[in-house]
Amino acid sequence: MVPITTLHYLVVAAALFVLGVVGVLTRRNVVIILMSIELILNAVNLNLVAFSRMWGNLHGQVFSIFIVVDAAAEAAVGLGILIAFFRNKETINVDEIDLLKW
Amino acid sequence: MNPALVIPALAHPSRMAAAFIDSAPNPAAPIATPWFFYGLAAAAVISGLLVITRRNAVHSALSLIVTLLSVAGLYLMLYAPFVAGVQIIVYAGGIMVLFLFVIMLVNIERVSKERQFNRIWPVGLLASCALLALFMSAIQKGKSLFLDRMVQLPEGTNTQQIAAALYGETGKMGQYTFAFEIASLLLLVAILGAVIMTKKKI
Q1: CB under 8 Å to B8, separation ≥6 — which residues?
Q2: Within an 8 Å CB–CB cutoff, is residue B51 touching chain A?
Q3: What stretches in chain A show pLDDT beneath 70?
């Protein structure tokens, strides 16, 4: 059995990151796009904690806590924008949000 | 097999005591096998796949909760118990409840009957595959940088050390105290923005 090293965690984090990018680029539903952004942030957090383990210091873990704070702020503001938009246009599909496009 | 590559707790028990650097040998070191890692990683990736493919947004949110809990398990395998706790309490407990509330507020029946993917989805999928290939080639090329060390963190005092970095020791500021205060300001701005945007009349 191969022992688990940092590389394994990096591969998992890369897979989660790419899944999040696929969700952001292909879905129409804004809620699912915001969830995909959470997937991306989780992949970054996993990388930071794995590197923190690899180098034996805690900076990565502290940074990952800051990223969780940032994700909370981003989710609150994003969902607020979504509710305001839904109240005005009765849709949550991104390709119908095209008022600034001509 | 080079013993430096092995996560100390996963190594042979006789090597375990020498592997702990700062703390005393921990008799309650977790008995984790590589299968735990593969199970958690598979759960995270499969439920991540479900997040971006489900038609119903509630199913996506529940799959995302499974992903978050699996990543919390991976944090535990990396000896980061405080980050794992934060992940469960803040992400799975706080942010996902917010998501579920908003999904219930907007009209999900109509949206789930519509087309789920936008018209340029092949381009997005192609770009994502290119990104994955880039990541994999970078990991493949930099393999030698990662493999040679895996330092044991003293997980018994993990929370105290993170607290010392964030809040500082007695009498002096920690390394991240200023950033911590700025983060509180960021949360205040986010609260104000969310309230103002969702109010009908300001």
Answers
A1: B15, B16, B19, B20, B150, B152
A2: yes
A3: 1, 102
> Residue B63 and residue B46: Cα distance in Å, rounded?
9
CATH topology of domain A6-93: Helix Hairpins (1.10.287)
A61–B162 CB contact, under 8 Å = yes
Residues of B in contact with A55 (CB under 8 A): 149, 151
Length of chain A in terms of residues written: 102
pLDDT for B30 beyond 50: no
- Among B63, B71, B61, smallest CA distance to B47 is for B63
CA distance A88 to B9: 56
Q: Which one of A30, A64, A69, A82 makes the best mutation probe of the B interface by having the most chain B beta carbons within 10 Å? A: A69
For residue B192 the two structure tokens come to 């104000």
Measure in Å the smallest separation between the Cα of B11 and chain A Cα atoms: 8
Q: Do the Cβ atoms of B67 and B51 come closer than 8 Å?
A: yes
Say yes or no: B130 contacts chain A, CB-CB below 8 A: no
* Residue found by looking up tokens 């034996």 in the block: A56
Specify the DSSP class assigned to residue B187.
H
Contact A27 B82 (CB under 8 A): no
H helix or E strand, kind and range, residue B179 = helix B177-198
pLDDT tens digits, one per residue of B65-77: 999 999 999 999 8
Residues B150-183 pLDDT 10s: 666 666 688 888 888 888 887 788 889 999 999 9
Q: Would you call A84 and B197 a contact, using CB atoms and an 8 Å cutoff?
A: yes
Q: Which residues of chain B make contact with A39, given a CB cutoff of 8 A?
A: 48, 51-52, 64, 67
The residue extents of the domains of chain A are 6-93
Which pairs count as long-range contacts for B179-186, CB under 8 Å and 24+ apart, including other chains?
Answer: B179/A66, B183/A66, B183/A69, B183/A70, B186/A69, B186/A70, B186/A73
